[in-house]
Design brief:
122 residues; mainly beta; seven-stranded mixed sheet; four-stranded antiparallel sheet
Length: 122
């Protein structure tokens, strides 16, 4: 089946930066939208960002707009998310997700990665 593998999580101080990556296999990445969700303990999984398969349009949650940037390298089947000006409330497990087009609804996502933990604290 489709495999999505995240990397790049870790511990960072408030105001710092991290770059997450998602490596995809088992399908042609350019035919799928790839996005990121995150989930903190006791909270629902929420959409963070997505890049469309049709025209490359990008979408962001209001809470991260202007701080996070998603991009893709179709030749390498890899999606990146640069995270700047990180805040403690960004702490969560971040999951890579794939489907035919972007969606904010977790139940409609076809494929998931296992997640990578991002911790923002002093």
């Amino acid at each position: 089946q489709v495999q999505l593998v995240e990397s790049g999580g870790g511990l960072v101080q408030p105001g710092g930066s991290l770059r997450l990556s998602c490596a995809a296999s088992g399908f042609t990445s350019d035919r799928y939208a790839i996005g990121w969700f995150r989930q903190a303990p006791g909270k629902e999984r929420e959409g963070v960002s997505c890049i469309s398969s049709s025209d490359g349009s990008t979408y962001y949650a209001y809470s991260v707009k202007g701080r996070f940037t998603i991009s893709r390298d179709n030749a390498k089947n890899t999606v990146w998310m640069q995270m700047n000006s990180l805040k403690p409330e960004d702490t969560a497990v971040y999951y890579c997700a794939a489907d035919r087009e972007c969606t904010r609804v977790p139940g409609r996502v076809g494929s998931w990665g296992r997640g990578t933990l991002v911790t923002v604290s002093s």
